Amino acid sequence: MPKLFLKFNEAVLKEIAMEGPQLTIGRKPDNDVVIDNPAVSGHHARIVQEQGAFFLEDLDSTNGSFVNDAQVQKQQLKNTDRVAIGKHVLVFQEDVPAAAPAPPQKETDSDKTMILDTKKQRELLKAMQTMQSPVGYKAIEKLGFLTIVSGQTDKKDYELTGRLAVIGAENTATVKLTGWFAPKNAALIARRGPAYFLSTPQGAKKITVNSETVQGQRELQDGDTLMVAGVLLQFVLKDQKG
User: Fold this and answer.
1) pTM for the full model?
2) Which terminus of the chain is more solvent-facing, meaning fewer CB atoms within 10 Å of its CB: N or C?
3) Consecutive sets of 10 residues in the chain, 242 residues long: mean pLDDT of each?
């Protein structure tokens, strides 16, 4: 289901799933998304679902509602759109397409269950009882990193520890593009469990992964190379001990 990421400056404060037909945003506690900031009206805006699409609707707020820096009264939301409410930003992300199921494989001799006689069963159980896990073993979690191969950014290496990373020229971007004509919101990388997904904004310049054009969203793999707004990046996964 679609999600919203509530951001203040560079920090993601909350992740909200769009489960119902509408979601209200405002300063008062009866809203679905409460933003306790004096620049936000009591009932500032809402997001409604109509015929499978999601729309932001301003509720006659004092300071207005903005989608990608343009003030709107009612506006359909598209993947990676940024909704500004006061000094906070809500990033809209559409569904991640489900992976296609793997084709059924023909059973081989190695897949078939081996039938053991009583003596062999006892020997196998004894051998398994002597096997122990290494002392102090902990599961190792993979963490994503981006390295700039070429292009203009504020740093050369980025650790993707948060749930959402923005690539663009906006002040709150995780990977800040510094070129003269760099877009404010060039791409998003969302972390869902152990996986990372690249999302492309509607109407953005062509984005490629391993020289293949990305449309919508794509799961990133270790070693992928990304071309975003003229910047070449490499995505890698590194082991992080839990």
Assistant:
1) 0.62
2) C
3) 85 86 94 93 94 93 93 92 92 65 52 56 57 47 90 92 88 86 87 88 82 88 92 90 54
